[in-house]
Structure formats: structure tokens, C-alpha cells
């Protein structure tokens, strides 16, 4: 080669041109003189392996992948992305070792599973099949529709049944922002086998938790502990510990509450929460959050959004004036840089503390992968470049197509389109134009900022208005024709906050909690959730029962005082804020709710005449807080599979004669106890009673004796 005196490159140059070799070498210098080599697309060192397992047993798929930057791995089941928040799946990433675990397989888990790894240099995937065999089936061969072969079935596996007992558990916690909270539990396993120890799994509101900056989990033999080092309102929820073994699991749950900490100034609102990043692109992101509850504070008038580049502590306020809705597009980011975001709420008294910071997000073009490809230069050497870096010719770019709105909000629309199939060597950018239906002139949207990716958010639109959009491609040689205009796209129009929720009803739960239920608002208006307020009867000192929006219209208020009487009210939330309060519930005192009685026991046979049996049983140990006043009996004839009711009217006494039985038949019986709370659990089946007439003589009556007979008897004795 005339440029680099490389024999491999010389062979390559014979088939192209010297100028092209110069271009490629220039790209190699630019792209290889970096912190690490660019030739680091994802690569699987260990691929997935197929498994055949029994129903109700675990399976774990694992693979090892390397690449730079670190590849992102996604999991698929039969081509459909797996929901990582599901309690069914446990996905872990441990320094390049990626695992997907199903703790308790069902037959519908039979599928082909795919792990797909990708970074800016490309994507690779590996597949494996999981076949779940039903224990009830005999030797049966399953086949997967994606495979042409059959997998042999494993011999039946008999697992040791391990019973788990909680020795110590954690209760409900009521903390304040900034506290350190620890939930700990101690268990014992029977039998206690070293190589079959239970696995501790922690969940918050059914979402699996793992070690992070905000959550620390420690587990040792028989002990597990979860620590929240800096409690925040995002941490509020029901925490569940599952101790999982081969034969099942043991579960314990408790509620963790987090109240607002002291405000920066008296009367300032609490901090927003649940910061999410949407639609990250090369120069903008969209930030959303949830509003705090306001019981005694003044109403919120807006929010400030702050950003901070990773690796620094320089927080910059993104909006000059407060925004009134809980969503904000942040433009002006630098491509390739990563950022944190946070939000502060404002009312007439002052500004709140900032929310918990978001996860870091990189400002990158989401279509970057589609425009990358590799060129082989011989041997093992590849160079990764963009399509438009190598295509030759001084050409005007083609016309974009398939323009549509991928997201629509109140004041902005996110547009996406398909670039023309061929582009010239010169860099390409795009111009977006808009027109309102009531106006006839097209207006260019991005006159100052060139757009390189086929995706763009158009801001500063009017709420509830209709627009048409079109896009043009351009390079240094000119502009393409405008694309076909979109169909009329209407921005969203919020009609205000939701209407107030309907009737609120409180019912007893335990001696320290009450269950609150309410009717959903008639006008939800993009409802986010609810806040529940609580007040002791006779006072007007309302407090928050929850500090993070609750999604359902049922909520258990914890930490109440036994014997105290409370009232409740509910507010609905959307992006614009909180609704009016609902009407207050009827006051209700806190005491243990009635429960159904436990099962009767010790069913005994007192008599049998060959056609009927007289039964007796013992009273339930636990009445559930209300007297057990009635009983029901079911019978089961040996050889049959159905239990049948004996008595339709309830029995008031613990004694009953069962009639119309078949002589010589064998019967079993079960008894249910009933109270005001309902019908309790059935007793264990009785012993098998044979319907044979008892032949033991029954005690007779004492014969009558006259006074004369008694006198004669006395004389004889004398």
C-alpha cells in the first residue's frame, strides 16, 4: 500500500481505489486512537444451554458476554420481550455473567429463550430452549416449534421437602426522609442441609430488589437483612421477603412508610418523587415525576427541573420559570454526555428539597445501531463506520418517508421517520416543518439546530391544536423534496385535575390498621394515583397516610392506635396536580376485625343402626371474634370422589343424626363452623366409619318393684 506499506491493505486497495484506502485509514486513525479499541462489539464467551426440567422446579439460564462499551443484554421469550419487573423472573448481571432464573417453572414456561446483547458496535444473540415436563404426565416427549429435534426426558427427580419457619420477622416501619431503615428476619429450615439453603428474595410492591446505591441486601445462613441507607418517599411500599426452596417458599410482608423531612423553609411543599426519563435522544430528554401530597402546605404552583453532568456536582436549573405539569422536555444536551436529573416543587412559601436524583442517562441517538456497519480489511481486522461515511458520490440525499408521531403530549410532539435508502458521502441532516390546520404557510421548526437522527421532538405547540408536519433531508449539495405530510396530529388537552373521588368507606382490618376503599373519580383526566389523609375524630389535624401515590382504590392504613376513632378522605392526582378532597368517611374505631372460625375437629361416631349414624365433634379452637352458632356437614362415600352436603338448614348443636345411609357402606365426614364473619375452614376428614348396626346390648330400664315385694324380701333376709 502506498499509504501505509501494509501488504494486507495493498491487497485490499487493488480492488478499490487509493483514495478510498486513504479515507478508510483516516477513519481508522480517528476511531482506533481511543481509550480502548473500537473493535469491541459484543461477543458471547458462553452461550445459553437448553434445559428439560420438571414442573414446579427451578431453571437458570446463563451466558457470558464481553464488549466495550459494556453491552446491554435483553431477554426474550418466543421473541417477546420479558417483563423484568415480573415477580416470576429473576434477572441478574454480575460483571458480564448474565442469568435468567425461573424459581418455579410451569408448563407454559416451555419456550425458546433468547439473550440479545448490544452496544454501539452491533448486536449478537444466543438462544436456548426450556422444556417443562408435567409431573402428572407419564413418559412424554415435548417438542419445541422452533426445533426440529426432540429432547429426551429427564428421569423423575425427587427433591427433599424443606420446611421453612420464621423465627424472627420485621414489622411495619414509619420513618422520615433521610433515616436508615433495616428489615431483618431469621429463619430455620428442616431438614437443615448445607447444600440446600433457602434463597432470600426481597420485593417492594411485587418488584424484585437487588443491591444498589439505595438498597443493601445481606444474606447468610438462616439470616437475611435489607437496609435502606437513606430513606426516601420512593422507598415507600409493601416489602415482601420470600425464602425460596426446591419445594416451595415462605413469605412475610410489612409496610414501610416515609414521611417528608423538615422543609427548607416553613410551609414549603414536600419533594416530588418517582423521577423517570423518557425518549432520550442525542440532544434532549423528557423528564416526568409525581407530585407530593399537600395536607397543611399551600398548593403547588410549579416545578423546577435541574440537571447535572455525571462526574461533576454542578447542578443547572433547566427552566427559567416554574412549569405547572409533571413532565418537561429538557433540550440543549451534549451528545454522548450522561446526565442526572432532579425536580423541586414550589408553593407560595418557598421551594422544596430536591427529589431523589434519577438514574444516569446518556444523550445518544437511538438509531445509532442502524447506521453502523463493519468493513473487513483482511485477516481479523475490521473497522466500524457509518453508512454515510463510505458511500461515494456527490449526491443530494433522498426524500425521507413514513413520517409519524411516536409520542404526543400537550405542548410537544415526537416525530420519527425513515431515512432514504441511499445517502451521499457528505454528512446529512434534516429540517422539520409544521403548519397549523387553520394556517396555510409551512414554518421551519429547527432553523438553528441541525438534526442528524431520524427522530425529533417539536416543542412549544399549542394545547389541543391540530398540526401537519413534513421533513426534508439535506447535505452540502442541497436539499431533498419534502416528505409526504403527516395526517393531522392533535396535541393533548388536559381538562384540569381529576374530579374528587367518590364515597370513602373504612372497614376493620387488624387492631392497628383499617382498610380504606373509595369510588374512582368520574373524570379521571389521565389519573396517576391517590393520596389518603387520616384524622382522629373530633380534630382537624389531617395527616398523610401515604406519601407516594397509590394506584388502586383500596389501601390499608397502618400504624393506627387501638381503640382510637378515625376519619379518612382521598384525593386523586394527575400531571396537573391534586383534585379536591373527597367527602370524609364515617368515623370508625380501630379494633381487630371479625374473622371466620377455625375448623372443628375430632369427629366421633356415637351410634349407628345400619341406616343412620350419630356424630359429635369439638368446637373450633378460634372463634374469630364472634360466637360459632351453626355447623354444616359434608359426607363422602368410600370409592367416590365427591363430597356432598348433608344438611341445608344449619345445625345449632354439636350433635347430629345422619340418616338415609346404606348398610355396610363406609363413610367419611367433614364439619364446617359458621359465625357472623362467614363459614370457616372444613375440619379434617373423619375416620372411615362403617355403617353397620351396633349389636352391643343397650342398658335396659329398672323393673318396677312394689312396696309389698320389698317387705317380703326384707323378711326373707331377716
From TrEMBL:
Cellular component GO terms, alphabetical: M band
Keyword annotations: Immunoglobulin domain, Repeat
Claim: Repeat is one of the keywords in the record: yes
Segments traversing the membrane: none
Gene3D superfamilies named in the record: Immunoglobulins
InterPro entries reported for this sequence: FN3_dom, FN3_sf, Ig-like_dom, Ig-like_dom_sf, Ig-like_fold, Ig_I-set, Ig_sub, Ig_sub2
Leader sequence residues: none
Kinase keyword on record: no
Swiss-Prot/TrEMBL GO biological process terms: sarcomere organization
Domain Fibronectin type-III: 271-366, 399-494, 500-593, 599-698
Domain named Ig-like: residues: 42-131, 155-257
The protein, known as: Myomesin 2
Species per Swiss-Prot/TrEMBL record: Oncorhynchus mykiss
Gene behind this protein: LOC110499392
Amino acid at each position: 500500500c502506498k499509504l501505509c506499506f501494509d501488504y494486507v491493505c495493498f491487497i485490499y486497495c487493488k480492488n478499490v481505489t487509493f483514495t478510498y484506502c486513504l479515507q478508510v485509514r483516516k477513519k481508522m486513525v480517528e476511531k482506533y486512537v481511543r481509550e480502548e479499541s473500537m473493535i469491541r462489539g459484543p461477543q458471547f464467551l458462553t452461550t445459553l444451554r437448553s434445559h428439560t426440567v420438571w414442573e414446579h422446579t427451578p431453571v437458570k439460564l446463563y451466558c457470558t458476554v464481553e464488549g466495550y462499551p459494556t453491552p446491554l443484554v435483553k431477554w426474550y421469550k418466543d421473541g417477546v420481550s420479558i417483563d423484568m419487573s415480573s415477580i416470576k423472573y429473576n434477572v441478574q448481571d454480575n460483571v458480564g455473567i448474565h442469568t435468567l432464573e425461573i424459581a418455579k417453572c410451569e408448563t407454559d414456561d416451555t419456550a425458546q429463550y433468547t439473550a440479545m446483547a448490544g452496544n454501539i458496535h452491533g448486536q449478537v444473540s444466543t438462544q436456548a430452549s426450556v422444556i417443562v415436563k408435567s409431573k402428572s404426565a407419564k413418559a412424554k416427549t415435548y417438542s419445541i416449534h422452533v426445533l426440529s429435534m426432540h429432547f429426551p426426558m429427564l428421569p423423575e427427580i425427587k427433591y427433599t421437602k424443606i420446611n421453612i419457619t420464621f423465627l424472627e420477622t420485621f414489622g411495619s416501619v414509619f420513618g422520615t426522609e433521610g433515616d436508615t431503615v433495616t428489615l431483618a428476619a431469621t429463619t430455620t429450615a428442616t431438614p437443615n442441609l448445607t447444600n440446600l439453603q433457602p434463597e432470600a428474595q426481597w420485593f417492594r410492591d411485587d418488584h424484585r430488589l437487588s443491591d444498589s446505591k439505595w438498597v443493601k441486601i445481606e444474606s447468610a445462613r438462616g439470616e437475611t437483612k435489607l437496609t435502606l441507607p437513606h430513606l426516601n418517599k420512593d422507598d415507600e411500599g409493601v416489602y415482601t421477603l420470600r425464602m425460596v426452596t426446591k419445594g416451595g417458599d415462605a413469605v412475610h410482608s410489612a409496610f414501610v412508610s416515609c414521611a417528608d423531612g423538615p422543609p427548607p423553609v416553613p410551609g414549603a411543599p414536600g419533594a416530588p418523587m418517582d423521577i423517570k426519563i423518557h425518549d432520550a435522544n442525542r440532544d434532549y430528554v423528557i423528564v416526568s415525576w409525581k407530585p407530593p401530597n399537600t395536607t397543611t402546605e399551600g398548593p403547588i404552583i410549579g416545578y423546577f427541573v435541574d440537571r447535572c453532568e455525571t462526574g461533576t456536582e454542578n447542578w443547572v436549573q433547566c427552566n427559567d420559570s416554574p412549569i405547572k405539569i409533571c413532565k418537561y422536555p429538557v433540550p440543549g444536551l451534549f451528545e454522548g454526555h450522561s446526565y442526572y436529573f432532579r425536580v423541586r416543587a414550589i408553593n407560595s412559601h418557598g421551594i422544596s428539597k430536591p427529589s431523589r436524583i434519577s438514574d444516569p442517562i446518556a444523550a445518544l441517538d437511538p438509531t445509532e445501531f442502524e447506521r453502523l456497519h463493519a468493513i473487513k480489511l483482511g485477516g481479523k481486522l475490521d473497522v466500524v463506520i457509518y453508512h454515510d461515511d463510505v458511500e461515494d458520490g456527490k449526491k443530494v440525499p433522498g426524500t425521507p418517508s413514513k413520517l409519524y408521531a411516536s409520542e404526543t403530549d400537550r405542548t410537544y410532539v415526537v416525530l420519527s421517520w425513515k431515512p432514504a435508502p441511499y445517502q451521499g458521502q457528505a454528512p446529512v441532516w434534516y429540517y422539520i416543518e409544521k403548519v397549523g390546520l387553520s394556517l396555510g404557510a409551512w414554518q421551519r421548526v429547527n432553523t438553528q439546530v441541525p438534526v442528524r437522527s431520524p427522530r425529533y421532538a417539536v416543542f412549544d405547540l399549542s394545547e389541543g391544536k391540530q398540526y401537519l408536519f413534513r421533513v426534508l433531508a439535506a447535505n452540502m449539495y442541497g436539499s431533498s423534496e419534502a416528505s409526504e405530510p403527516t395526517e393531522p396530529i392533535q396535541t393533548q388537552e388536559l381538562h384540569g385535575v381529576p374530579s374528587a373521588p367518590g364515597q370513602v368507606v373504612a372497614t376493620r382490618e387488624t387492631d392497628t390498621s383499617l382498610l380504606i376503599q373509595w369510588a374512582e373519580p368520574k373524570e379521571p383526566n389521565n389519573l396517576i394515583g391517590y393520596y389518603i389523609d387520616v384524622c382522629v375524630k373530633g380534630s382537624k389535624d389531617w395527616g398523610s397516610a401515604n406519601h407516594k401515590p397509590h394506584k388502586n382504590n383500596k389501601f390499608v392504613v397502618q400504624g393506627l392506635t387501638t381503640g382510637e376513632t378515625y376519619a379518612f378522605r382521598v384525593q386523586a392526582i394527575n400531571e396537573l396536580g391534586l383534585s379536591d378532597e373527597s367527602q370524609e368517611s364515617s368515623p370508625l374505631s380501630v379494633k381487630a376485625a371479625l374473622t371466620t372460625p377455625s375448623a372443628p375437629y375430632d369427629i366421633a361416631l356415637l351410634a349407628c343402626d345400619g341406616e343412620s349414624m350419630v356424630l359429635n365433634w369439638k368446637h373450633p379452637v378460634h372463634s374469630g371474634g364472634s360466637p360459632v352458632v351453626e355447623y354444616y356437614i359434608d359426607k363422602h362415600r368410600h370409592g367416590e370422589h365427591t363430597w356432598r352436603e348433608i344438611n341445608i338448614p344449619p345445625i345449632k348443636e354439636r350433635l347430629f343424626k345422619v340418616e338415609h345411609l346404606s348398610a355396610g357402606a363406609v363413610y367419611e365426614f367433614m364439619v364446617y363452623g359458621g359465625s357472623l364473619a362467614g363459614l370457616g375452614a372444613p375440619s379434617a376428614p373423619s375416620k372411615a366409619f362403617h355403617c353397620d348396626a351396633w349389636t352391643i346390648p343397650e342398658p335396659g330400664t329398672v323393673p318396677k318393684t312394689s312396696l309389698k315385694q320389698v317387705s317380703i324380701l326384707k323378711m326373707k333376709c331377716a
